[in-house]
């Protein structure tokens, strides 16, 4: 049965399309566009999932949300075992950490910056502390990347797929000059034929 990806433009669901292309899985895309003024997801997504957010996939009548859960599910159910770390491997603890870090720790200061950035002077003290936190996170990612540009292990894994969005955000926010490995990681992601196919199918994606 074909997988349906409920895909919001300029969003974290781009990672789902990329992994599906890497796996060679059959899927179709249901496209949703952000509001041109508010940048919010359209109300139609609320008919797909109660939270009205993306990514969400539909597979065999089951709706699945949350990026890390979707990536793990696709690897386990659709031929992506090579994109996971074995439970008994030395890489597994690190794999688990990176699979959850991007959404669990990194996105918090990113979203604070986005939302409080519209408040004005009243938010200045919080934004100053938040910016320091964000820089610490970006440096942590830079220092954690291996010389061959992987977050765990010596080959591409679902953790790299998950971390592609945080890395892209860091580059878009101007950290590429001080984080050369992170910049090269994003370049390596975008150079993969599967990512390029996913970008073509998914539509406009930020600055790339």
Automatic annotation (TrEMBL):
A matching Pfam family: GST_N
Reactions catalysed, as given in the entry: RX + glutathione = an S-substituted glutathione + a halide anion + H(+)
Metal-binding listed as a keyword: no
PROSITE patterns associated with the record: GST_NTER (PS50404)
Record bears the keyword Zinc: no
Transmembrane segments: none
Residue ranges of domain GST N-terminal in the record: 1-82
Cross-referenced InterPro entries: Glutathione-S-Trfase_C_sf, Glutathione_S-Trfase, Glutathione_S-Trfase_N, GST_C, Thioredoxin-like_sf
Gene Ontology terms for molecular function: glutathione transferase activity; peroxidase activity
Domain of life: Bacteria
Enzyme type, top EC level: transferase
GO cellular component terms, semicolon-separated: cytoplasm
Keyword vocabulary terms for this entry: Transferase
The enzyme's E.C. designation: 2.5.1.18
Family statement: Belongs to the GST superfamily.
Name this protein carries in UniProt: glutathione transferase
Species of origin: Qipengyuania marisflavi
């Amino acid at each position: 049965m074909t997988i349906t990806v409920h895909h919001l433009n300029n969003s974290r669901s781009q990672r789902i399309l990329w992994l599906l292309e890497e796996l060679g899985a059959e899927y179709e895309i249901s496209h949703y566009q952000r509001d041109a003024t508010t940048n919010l997801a359209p109300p139609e997504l609320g008919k797909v999932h109660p939270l009205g957010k993306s990514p969400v996939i539909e597979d065999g009548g089951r709706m699945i949300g949350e990026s890390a859960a979707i990536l793990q599910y696709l690897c386990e159910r659709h031929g992506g075992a090579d994109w996971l770390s074995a439970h008994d491997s030395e890489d597994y603890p690190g794999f688990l950490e990176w699979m959850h870090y991007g959404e669990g720790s990194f996105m918090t200061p990113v979203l604070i910056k986005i939302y409080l950035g519209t408040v004005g002077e009243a938010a200045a003290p919080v934004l100053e502390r938040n910016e320091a936190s964000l820089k610490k996170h970006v440096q942590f990612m830079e220092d954690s990347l291996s010389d061959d540009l992987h977050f765990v292990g010596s080959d591409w894994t679902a953790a790299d797929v998950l971390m592609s969005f945080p890395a892209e955000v860091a580059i878009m926010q101007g950290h590429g000059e001080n984080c050369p490995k992170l910049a090269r990681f994003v370049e390596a992601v975008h150079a993969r034929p599967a990512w390029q196919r996913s970008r073509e199918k998914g539509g406009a994606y930020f600055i790339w």
